[in-house]
């Protein structure tokens, strides 16, 4: 348990399934109260009940569609009005869409960009100012190894995650003399609802490389506490992203395409 976090509050977006559930549980294990946000209230409530039972902290479920700008603003005001301060913000909610760019309906594409890019930036902007006033706080942003190269069949998703990666690493630098830090975690394929939501059957590469969400989250929180700009969990994922530097971007796109399509 990290004593620095004990008794403080974490806001975790996308806490109804996958990585978000484990972020909430592991931060609660550090003694933090947690605010859980996603759209499915029933799931959030069940996660909150289990956390309160297992870790003796308070867990607060707030249903919200974070793709809606007004909802994000109201969420911030609601938390303020309840007298809570957010010491750790985990910007985790997100989804991908599998398929060729031309085949993905615009409405789905737009929802994804709104959640993966705009909501990430908006929530950060809302909460970071309070953190800076207190000169204390942590922000975790969830990107993807897809951020490190052009990824055919996840073209728009990986481009959105490249935004997250670059935003977070630049913010880490901008804030280097403050008590607030931003850390980007870029997971590879992880056992969550991600593939079901994106509409992809797991490929050979994904079946072989699948990591457990608890491991990804543990590595992310350790890196956050060290105020690192960025982390890629898993040795093969780290080698894969590093290896991209040695080959042309065209070759990188080709390899990514094989990994995303070969079954
Ligand atoms: N799993 C992977 O292989 C993988 C790899 C790289 C990066 N990532 C990233 O990891 C993050 C977490 O995804 P996951 O893998 O844990 O997938 P997941 O199990 O599908 O979880 C996604 C979470 O986001 C929430 N969410 C989706 N749309 C939302 C909206 N409009 N408003 C509020 N919450 C919303 C979902 O809750 P509701 O449906 O209840 O709203 C859910 O809690 C995402 O940013 C994803 O891009 C995942």
Write the layout of secondary structure elements.
Blueprint (H helix, E strand, L loop, with lengths): L8 E5 L4 H12 L3 E6 L2 H15 L3 E5 L5 H13 L6 E4 L14 H29 L2 E6 L12 H20 L5 E6 L8 H5 L5 H6 L3 H13 L4 E2 L3 H9 L5 H13 L2
Parallel strand pairs: 1-2, 1-4, 2-3, 4-5, 5-6, 6-7
Helix pairs in contact: 1-2, 1-8, 3-4, 4-5
The structure holds NADP nicotinamide-adenine-dinucleotide phosphate.
Low-confidence stretches: none
Mean pLDDT across all amino acids = 97
Q: How far is it from the N-terminal to the C-terminal residue, by CA?
A: 41 Å
CATH topology: Rossmann fold
How large is the share of residues in beta strands? 5-15%
| Oligomeric state, counting identical vs distinct chains | single chain
Radius of gyration: 18 Å
Structural write-up:
The chain has 263 residues and is of the alpha/beta class. It has one domain: NAD(P)-binding Rossmann-like Domain (Rossmann fold). It is built from 10 helices and 7 strands. It has helices at residues 18-29, 41-55, 69-81, 106-134, 155-174, 194-198, 204-209, 213-225, 235-243, 249-261, and strands spanning 9-13, 33-38, 59-63, 88-91, 137-142, 180-185, 230-231. A 7-stranded parallel β-sheet has the order 3-2-1-4-5-6-7, with helices on both faces. Strand 2, helix 2 (41-55) and strand 3 form a beta-alpha-beta unit. The radius of gyration is 18 Å and the shape is globular. The model has no long low-confidence stretch (mean pLDDT 97). NADP nicotinamide-adenine-dinucleotide phosphate is lined by residues 14-20, 38-40, 43, 65-67, 92-96, 115, 142, 144, 187, 189-190, 192-194, 197.
């Amino acid at each position: 348990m990290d004593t620095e976090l004990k008794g403080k509050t974490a806001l975790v977006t996308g806490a109804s399934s996958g990585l978000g559930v484990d972020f909430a549980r592991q931060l609660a294990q550090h003694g933090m109260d947690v605010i859980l946000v996603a759209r499915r209230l029933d799931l959030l409530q069940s996660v909150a009940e289990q956390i309160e039972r297992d870790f003796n902290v308070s867990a607060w479920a707030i249903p919200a569609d974070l793709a809606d700008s007004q909802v994000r603003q109201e969420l911030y005001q609601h938390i303020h009005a309840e007298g809570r301060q957010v010491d750790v913000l985990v910007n985790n909610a997100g989804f991908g869409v599998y398929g060729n760019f031309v085949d993905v309906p615009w409405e789905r594409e737009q929802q994804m960009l709104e959640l993966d890019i705009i909501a990430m930036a908006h929530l950060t902007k809302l909460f970071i100012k309070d953190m800076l006033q207190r000169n204390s706080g942590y922000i975790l942003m969830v990107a993807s190894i897809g951020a490190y190269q052009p990824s055919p069949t996840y073209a728009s998703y990986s481009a959105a995650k490249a935004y997250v990666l670059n935003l977070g690493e630049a913010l880490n630098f901008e804030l280097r003399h403050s008590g607030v830090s931003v850390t980007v975690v870029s997971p590879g394929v992880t056992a969550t609802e991600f593939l079901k939501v994106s509409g992809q059957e797991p490929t050979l590469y994904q079946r072989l490389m699948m990591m457990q969400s608890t491991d990804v989250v543990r590595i992310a929180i350790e890196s956050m506490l060290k105020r690192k700009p960025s982390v890629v969990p898993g040795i093969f994922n780290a080698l894969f992203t590093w290896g991209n530097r040695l080959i042309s971007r065209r070759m990188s796109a080709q390899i990514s395409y094989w990994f995303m399509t070969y079954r």
